[in-house]
Amino acid sequence: MTSSSGTTLQELFKGENRPNMFVKSPKRQTSHLDMLKRCFSQDYKSELEFLGGKLATLCYCGAFLSFGMSEAVIGPTLLELGCQTGKGVNRIAWIVFTQAFSAWFGSLTGGLLAERYNCSRVLVTNVLAISICLAFIPVWSIYYGMLITVGLLGINMGMIDTVANVNLIKIHGREVAPRLQALHFCYGIGALLSPMIVRPFLRDQCDGTVVVHNSTNSTIERNRTILNTTTVYKVSKEPITVQFGYWIIASIQIPIILGLVYLIFKQKRLRETFPVPNEGEIISLGDNDSESTSEAMKDLSQIFKPVSLLPAKRPWITISVRVLLITFLSSSLLFLCEGLKGSYAGYLYTFALKSKVHLTSREGAFLSALFWGHFAVGRFISIPVAIFIKPDKMVCINLVGCLVSMSVVLYFHDKALAIYIGTSLFGLFISSVFPSTLALAELYINVTGPVTSVIVIGSASGEMVIPMIVGK
């Protein structure tokens, strides 16, 4: 009995089959791999179901990340680009106008392309073109060559702005508000990353000789700024390192391009596996009660507004006039707000160095990053807030916050602390104006591709005209 019990105890405490808490279980590793496989190889029943999923939305957010990075990189590097081309602030400021004007033209073109071509293919072409333009902008020592490259960059930025918004609205309809906030949150993340990436490559001033033309006489001085004069910088003999920041940003676009390419092939595979019924045929809308017509309408790639969502009685204003009025008001609001945002973000770095505050180049880059950081935080907060608060209330809160923050910067423009506080508040409140305005317009009208193009063109016009007025 004792020997048998002793043998049993020895076999029990041999430790051969005891689990080790420091060794990972193979089942847990398999479960993680299964989760990863399910994320990329989930079984979808239609192309529309795939486009409405999280993976497709993540790819569109990646395109907006590229959009934000390309727009925010010009402002902090404006003086460095002037050193590269040998132009002063008055001449190099035309780069901001060129980028905004090209984005306006790209927004107009993007609305037409979104209705005729596959949006994923348009987006992958735009992101690829943006990466190429970012790689070539800091290399140019010829001023007009740099302007042309910035113009191409702006065209692709405007296309991304229109195509991504139109596609999300077509897919999700009136439930698009949180997804629009997430889309524009990625824009804020990209705009935050750009100043942080180029910050180590910025200098306080150009090296070399500075020629200053005065109204009374001409003097030649070295590394000195004279007020009320036009300063023209000669090209520095020392190499400018800002191109490395641009190349890093251009390389970040590669995984975004790969994600959009995967999206294109997945759409093509689903379209071949589950073809859309009655595609290319004329469907009669007279028999609305038949089950076959309703099922066919659900599978159409073009999303229609259900009749039950329209008002039962004819309102005092016709539908066509309502569309024109809502579109005009939305584009006018975005003209002012986006123009104010573009001018503030574009000249914030230059203002920090040239105004009475007299910040250094690193402090100016930090100020730009602070603005875009609060911009990204504001859009992140707006994602859950958009579920509980209606778009009209969000727009009112944002406008009041922008008014207060701009008042702080205006009345205390010579105080560094006031500049930091006003910049943070302005970035926080201006962040969700654009997606909230689109969601507000969607509550009253059917926001189609042309309507979105007009609204985006209004915002792009503000980003083009108002910075030009401020720069002069």
UniProtKB/TrEMBL annotation:
Keywords: Membrane, Transmembrane, Transmembrane helix
Entry keyword Transmembrane: yes
Name listed for the protein in its UniProt record: Major facilitator superfamily domain-containing 4A-like
